[in-house]
Amino acid sequence: MSYFELSLLAGLALGGLTERNCWHFLSARAFSAVAAIYILSAGLLVLGAVGSRGHGSAQAISGFYTALKEQSLQRLAPVWLCVNTIVGLWLGPTLPFLLTH
Length: 101
Known about the structure:
By secondary structure, the chain is an all-alpha fold. It is 88% helix and 0% strand. Helix 1 packs antiparallel against helix 2 (30-51) and helix 1 packs parallel to helix 4. It is flat, with a radius of gyration of 18 Å.
């Protein structure tokens, strides 16, 4: 979970800078560059998943339903969604405003 949080924060922090630089250097081809970055990320995810122990899709689905029944997760999920929404709304217009000349 901490790796997920770290990647989320790094993506929020570096996404705007990468986006700006890609658009500056590549203009309309920046969309293709971002697509290539997504494909590279998906490849890294597949390579990481191959090295991990698989538990099967049936166990994954039953574990998901078990997690949804947890009282603590039911209390945390709405708060977590609200916090992520607030961060997204704040960073969305703020970073481009701060990073432009």
